[in-house]
Amino acid sequence: MTVPITTLQGIGERVAEQLARLKIETVEDMLFHLPLRYEDRTQIKPLTQLKVGDNVLIEGTIQATEVKITRKRSLVCMLTEGAGNVMLRFFHFYPSLREKLKPGIRLRCFGEVRQGYHCLELVHPQYECIDYSNSTALLEEHLTPIYPSTSHLNQSLFHSLIAQIFEKQEIIDYFPDTIRNQFNLLPLIEALHTLHHPSPSVSLKALQAGKHPAHRRLAFEELLAHHLSLYALRARNRNRNAPCLINDGQLTQALVTQLPFKLTTAQQKVTAEIAADLRTEHPMQRLLQGDVGSGKTIVAAISALQAIESGYQVAVMAPTELLSEQHKRTFSQWLEPLQIELTWLTSSLTKKKREQAIEKLASGQASLAIGTHALFQKGVEFAKLGLVIVDEQHRFGVHQRLALRNKGNQDGSYPHQLIMTATPIPRTLAMTTYADLETSIIDELPPGRTPVTTVIIPNTRRDEIVARINHVCQNEGRQAYWVCTLIKESEILQFQAAEETAEQLRKALPDLQIGLVHGRIKSKEKEEVMEKFKTKQLDLLVATTVIEVGVDVPNASLMIIENAERLGLAQLHQLRGRVGRGALQSYCVLLYQPPLSQIAQSRLATIRDTHDGFAIAKRDLDIRGPGEVLGTRQKGVLNLKVADLQRDKDLLDDIVAAGKILFEDYPEQCKLLVRRWAKEGLHYGEV
Ligand code: ADP
Ligand code: MG
Question: How many CB atoms lie under 10 A from the CB of residue 234?
Fold first, then answer.
């Protein structure tokens, strides 16, 4: 099955290149390159039975042909057969076409039926003239598959390749009979036959919707393969060594007693789950999910102390510099009283500072490292790394996760990993992309929070909002965020927009202290601005979406988000999570550029009416599908050929059950399945 596609007939270099663009390189790739849709050319539809929207094969005799000039010039033919008739219309035609399609000619046409001005029409149908002597021109025996293609390849090539494969190649079904029977799945060959050569009796509707048992069989196999690849990864992990972090927990105790609040029950529960993992001799791989503001950071700090008390180092990695700076501040505040040395490492450090930080990590002088990706770049070595904490995980994929783990490998001992996210992972992704992780969930917010009141307001009422900011900051002593989002996906424009907005607001609000942060501002300056905002020297912070994750300033109670309709729901929820961190009532204003489409309206209403991140993520998933929600941001997300995580999610329970059986009883088939569908999954096993 890994036979190169070029061994089939009819493939020259150019064609091979085009196929490669469609990711078709082997015979197997071609087999799983499924049709986009199907056409029914197996029977001729009587003209009296045509329905608008149908794609039909018809036959008839031309009654009249003329060039009409209404709004646009077109050639029209009236085609009749028995009591029925239909108009054929061509907008682009050579004069010779009028000659060719003259009255009395018999035609066979294929096209979509539309409602014309006078009667039903086929616009630019495919047609062929039929000779009376040859009136039994052959009909197709199967529905005609139409394959996804490039503009240089025509459909007949795919038909020929598939025919050759069915004729000459062996197609192996890796599912043992027991699995097929238990889960009621079609044999592979039958499924492939149905999809590539469907017989006219197959429901076109089910085929087009991807709901036919043939699709289901393939989707099942594909999702199962991805699941198995991670399952294998998890199993391998259990054979790896990690430091046992066992101690009396004095440091943890000291931290907890010094906190100004009491841990919530949920925080205590997840802290215990993590602590138990850290005590084992295998590397923890745990995902900590908790809504925005649920208090994940303190859980991370407690876990860090467990490692530090055992004499190991901990690395805390954040997705943005801004967030890493904040963590630096938070952790210093908690850990410095305990005499724990902390160092900060990002790519924006000066050479000298960077060298100092690296030295402290290599010598083991610093027990805790906080930073961005820079923590794991070349030249950074840890003396004794025991735990890696990754915050806001949705920005890191499986590959990065593994690279991180390998980086910490010392003499066959791997660090534990804790991955924290506020973006709930839908179950579909959880079991395919994250099946290698255990999960802990913080399912309650700290007490005393008042839900943020959210309003949706058109940009035309900007002045009112500006007045409101003035009131909130001047009279109530609170602080506010103004978030600029980009009009286009251009970073430069985004910076400019933020700078201009800050300028305008400074003019409009002369009595307020206004700061600005965006990705182009130097790290040191950014840190100063954030520090000033935190210590209330600034009233209003104008920012790009860099503040999306994690920033924590409880006194800020008003947030304005510009062009809110352009952001994803999860992102809006994250942003809004920057306010409502204290007990006082907070507000979030979603400014939009009118007019607002129906969908945009309903999305913004979802944010306004819902405060639960999990519910919002679910709604986002319904609207956009899982690929969009996590995919665009995340490398290493599945590249599915057949399955659709939304459409096929009802298969998941069976897939988990089948995965268990295959994994335990059919190791050889597992490998083959992973190789067939999740090639990159193979590497997971090796690293
Ligand atoms: P997130 O889960 O979004 O990362 P943080 O860890 O930033 O949330 O916590 C949000 C805020 O809640 C912080 O100011 C933190 O100090 C505070 N906090 C955390 N746990 C509790 C608790 N149990 N009771 C009260 N406040 C808490
Ligand atoms: Mg956080």
Answer: 14
